[in-house]
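## retry 2 of 3
previous attempt timed out at serialization; input unchanged, resubmitting
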Amino acid sequence: MRNLTLSMCGICIALAISGCANLTAVDKPLSHWTSEMNRRLGERIAGDRSPELLVLVAFSGGGTRAATFSYGVLKALAATEITTANGRRSILHEIDVISSVSGGSFTSVYYGLYGDRIFEEFEERFLRKNVEGALIAQMFNPINWVRLLSSSYGESDLAARYYDKILFGNA
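## retry succeeded, writing output
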């Protein structure tokens, strides 16, 4: 019983210390920007969307609930067809800009990276997973305790590693 008590105290101390970690972000300025880069960016943004229609989408935060809601919105937009100068197509393929925060960002980033593959993979890879449980398990993994003691590594870094593994694949 004494060993269990000591182990639990050790875990509590490690968690308390990790909460005091100081994460220092290092923002590096863009080294240069050319007119060619600007032109290529403009071409990427333009895509093949209709020029007479502007579709802006905003997703709120709220964890998995927000990710699920924004996923449902994308599904509804994919199922809603309109006729434009480019022919008949879904509103989803006419989106010009997506703005999102927190939980809604998981959906928007996944769609931005993988497009329509979101409807084949996202539910299983993210929405149906116990993400919160997995993140808590990361905190109790002794390997991560050493990382968390660093002043330049924190809980957000653990979460980022997990999200990169299950969703973003080093993107």
